[in-house]
Design goal:
The chain is mainly beta. It has a domain of 247 residues: TolB, C-terminal domain (Neuraminidase), CATH 2.120.10. The chain has two helices and 25 strands. It has a five-stranded antiparallel β-sheet, with no helix packed on it. 44% of the residues are buried.
Length: 380
């Protein structure tokens, strides 16, 4: 009887520990299809979002009806090469009054391209009054690691991620936009309190907020204005970083990844004066898109980070330890007393997840990175 009681107690304990993470099985409901390598999305109202396609196309999608309206007026200098093309989109915090939309895209020619950020006003089905806000320098003939995500903080400042363009040492150079998180005003001007604008050093770019990033394709600013960046590592070493102004995140000097052909990179996994990730992935999942779930629409996902996974074809869930059950076995301990529990959802869909967005009504949507990509609702 004592043995039976022991096993019964173990069973009850395991149920209490794991129930929150197995009780809700998620399904994906298709909302709209026919997108060619969709890349970014953002809501302009409760029911309507704007979706970009890397091939140089942008549409409005009604998420209630699935109706898709293609917009006209994109700039002629978008270059589609490698991983570049029309990339992210963000909506002005005062969009209802000013109609501004913000875009990042690969600009130039296949011999000399860069990441550009510009804005335009939405007038019916047309984008007009284009203004260039920032053009990353120098240019490169390489077709990878453009970044590029956009996000506004509560003060209306625009944050921009730029990849290292496959020229890794550029991430450590402060006179180079590559491998950086940038911060600008909505009109393109540089905030006076940016870390490298304060000292008026002619050898640094005032738009830089942090540096040492490889290829950041996830950016999220939470309700406390904490800045979170998720970025691709090489073979292993994808990272989720809590970004602080002026800090160096180490690439390519430190990394948990390795060269694709095997050898180590840089000087190891840590170095004084360089920041550690809050979480890292070995092996890589190839993350793209990042949100932190707010509200109570998805009880088992509340306050968790969701990351799209391109390589491993799922939505990755990172939940802080203090939100998980006591005693739950954790995959990995990370830094500064932050521990995350990792799990995977929507694996059976077997699609490359490019971006994730939570609507004003709390519902979560995601897009798949395919020649025949689709917009899905994560069913609560």
């Amino acid at each position: 009887m004592k043995i039976r009681g022991f096993f019964r107690n173990i069973a009850i304990y395991m149920l209490l520990v794991f129930y929150p993470f197995i009780a809700q099985a998620f399904e994906a409901k298709p909302i709209a299809t026919g997108f060619t390598y969709p890349w970014g999305m953002a809501f302009i109202s409760t029911d309507v979002m704007i979706v970009t396609e890397r091939v140089g196309k942008v549409s409005l999608v009604n998420v209630k009806t699935g109706k898709v309206q293609v917009l006209s007026g994109l700039p002629a200098d978008i270059v589609v090469m490698g991983q570049g093309g029309l990339l992210d989109v963000q909506v002005d915090p005062d969009f209802a009054n000013n109609a501004w939309l913000y875009f990042s895209y690969a600009q130039g020619t296949k011999k000399a391209a860069t990441t550009r950020v510009a804005r335009a006003k939405l007038n019916g089905k047309t984008l007009e009054q284009w203004q260039t806000l920032l053009t990353a320098t120098p240019r490169s003939s390489k077709g990878q690691h453009f970044g590029s995500r956009l996000y506004f903080d509560s003060k209306g400042l625009l944050y921009i991620t730029i990849g290292d363009r496959g020229e890794r040492n550029r991430a450590q150079k402060l006179d180079d936009h590559a491998g950086k998180l940038l911060r600008i005003h909505k009109d393109g001007n540089i905030p006076d309190d940016n870390p490298f604008a304060i000292d008026n050093n002619p050898n640094t770019l005032g738009s830089i907020y942090s540096y040492g990033h490889r290829n950041p394709q996830g950016l999220y600013i939470d309700q406390q204005d904490s800045v979170w960046v998720q970025e691709h590592g090489p073979r292993g070493g994808d990272e989720l970083n809590l970004v602080l102004r002026g800090k160096n995140y180490g690439w390519p000097i430190i990394t948990y990844g390795k060269e694709y052909w095997g050898p180590s990179i840089g000087e190891g996994a840590s170095k004084e004066g360089m920041e550690q990730p809050k979480y890292y992935y070995v092996p890589s999942i190839a993350p793209s898109g990042l949100i932190k779930v707010v509200g109570n629409r998805y009880p088992t996902l509340a306050n968790s980070f969701l990351l799209g996974a391109l390589k491993d074809r799922h939505i990755n869930v990172l939940t802080p330890e203090d939100l998980t059950s006591q005693g739950k076995a954790l995959k990995e301990t990370v830094f500064e007393e932050t521990v995350f529990e990792e799990k995977r959802i929507i694996e059976s869909l077997n699609k490359r997840i490019r971006d994730i967005e939570q609507g004003k009504d709390g519902l979560i949507y995601f897009i798949t990175d395919e020649a025949d990509g689709a917009l899905y609702l994560l069913m609560p």
